[in-house]
Amino acid sequence: MNILIVGVGLIGGSFSLALKDRSDLSFAGFDLDQEALLKAKKIGLVDEVFSEMNSAVKWADGIVLAIPVKAIKELLPVILDKLESHQFVVDFGSTKNTICETADSHEKRDQFIAAHPIAGTEHSGPDAAFKELFVDKNLILCDAEKTDLHKLMLFEDLAKSAGFYLTKMSAKEHDRHLAYISHLSHITSYVLSNTVLNKEKDGEVILDLAGSGFESTVRLAKSSPRMWSSIFLENKEMVLKGIVAYKKELEQLETLIENNEEDAIEEYLEEGRVIRKILK
Amino acid sequence: MNILIVGVGLIGGSFSLALKDRSDLSFAGFDLDQEALLKAKKIGLVDEVFSEMNSAVKWADGIVLAIPVKAIKELLPVILDKLESHQFVVDFGSTKNTICETADSHEKRDQFIAAHPIAGTEHSGPDAAFKELFVDKNLILCDAEKTDLHKLMLFEDLAKSAGFYLTKMSAKEHDRHLAYISHLSHITSYVLSNTVLNKEKDGEVILDLAGSGFESTVRLAKSSPRMWSSIFLENKEMVLKGIVAYKKELEQLETLIENNEEDAIEEYLEEGRVIRKILK
């Protein structure tokens, strides 16, 4: 089977790497960033590269879109138009609802699979890709009942080979959960980073005073701005709801501190600490 | 030299462990939590334990207070009262200004050293202590010019043996910097945890959808509520300023998202991403 990876960065590159030992698969890359594309070829993420979309799609049996959500929404209908009946296209975007809506109106909807790998690092680009990124990670398949069963099973086999375990939910449900659990984490991390950088102009001071705690809390602020600005807008409604809920929580703690309510503060922190029972 | 560790938890226990190979030092423990105290003796954090403060202080040459800030402020004057001229007392509290104010009015001020180890984990208690916690970590000495030089040098030697490198600043400066770099990290982490826990009642869903990103961002919410409620109140003024600055930043991003300003969002995230140049 020929797999075309569109977007040879952290996610696309790691998917290809994870499957490269399978002799029944060939991998090719396509990327608007020519430098990244050549790099991906050079470091062996893909066997060959295409500089032109039509021939790339024609070559492929399965196409994986590992690019920002906005780009997926633009490219997906174009690719669906070109597909022959045996081909399928998967997207690895971090929001799912608007992407699924885009696909829903297309006559080849059943050749499309909406998937979200719950995996990543704060790094990006072909160099960041590694073989084990998806091992024991969750791949969420959204609105999976709208995909042709044979194609879905073909892809599920690939995903399991790459190390994923699979869960299924609706695209709407996905975006609602992820707004709180993932998107809000990124927002609070970027905001913390900007707050500290605006206050502390001297990087040396930050480095000297930053324990591993600060480092861990701002780690996500190292993520790709292009990717995340796109995610925040794609999941705008839910993300804004998340921000409002977060501000309310923050103001609750702020008031307790203002009023010196030590016991109530401790209780508030105890509630938050319950997370350790979940994440271990 | 006899070192008394008051508070045999993560910090006090690790300090003792880090120095236990030095044959010129003996370590004893004191803790209001009798269970922790016995544990500390059992797992070898200290050689002996005291159940009564007077005899413990009399035994010691140097006393290390590794307990919450509020407890330090209560205990410090009591201990200073008891000290003979050759003895010294160090505090490892996470805020420094109110502690130093407490000491400043005492006639034995020059037998006191205010120190803050920029090291820790989200775990607490004797079991959490480990030998290497302070290796290559920063120990901030505050208002060090107020301590007798000979005693300061004695302690600096211990601190370096434990693995620390030393920096010095005023207690006020310390609290101002830490409010942003450390205390605010803990606040945003606890608040994020509470926001998500209030929204997602099902721990299984959180676990399935939480990538390493969420885990890293809420890690600090696993920290000790008793210790952190005390820190927030001790550094109240600066912490509240930090929260106000943070809310302003958050609302700036919120407005950009509301208005679909994708380029400006990306720019905002790029600014936050500068942190990767500092923390590497």
Concise account of the structure shown:
By secondary structure, chain A is of the alpha/beta class. The first copy, chain A, contains 13 helices and 8 strands.
**C-alpha Rg of chain A, in Å?**
21 Å
Task: Calculate the mean pLDDT score of chain A and round it.
Answer: 95
Oligomer: homodimer
Strand order of the largest sheet of chain A: 3-2-1-4-5-6-7-8
> Which structural class do the helices and strands of chain A define?
alpha/beta
List keywords for this structure.
homodimer, 280 residues, alpha/beta, eight-stranded mixed beta sheet, 13 helices, 8 strands, globular
Explain what you see:
- Chain A is built from 13 helices and eight strands.
- In chain A, about 55% of the residues are buried.
- Chain A has helices spanning about 10-20, 35-40, 55-60, 70-80, 95-105, 150-160, 170-200, 205-210, 210-215, 225-235, 235-260, 260-275, 275-280; strands at about 1-5, 25-30, 50, 60-65, 90, 110-120, 140, 165-170.
- In chain A, helix 6 (about 150-160) links the parallel strand 7 (about 140) and strand 8.
- An eight-stranded mixed sheet of chain A has the order 3-2-1-4-5-6-7-8, with helices on both faces.
- With about 280 residues, chain A is of the alpha/beta class.
- In chain A, helix 4 (about 70-80) packs parallel to helix 5 and helix 7 (about 170-200) crosses helix 11.
- The first copy, chain A, is globular and about 65 Å long.
- Chains A and B meet through helix 7, helix 8, helix 9, helix 10 and helix 11 of A and helix 7, helix 8, helix 9, helix 10 and helix 11 of B.
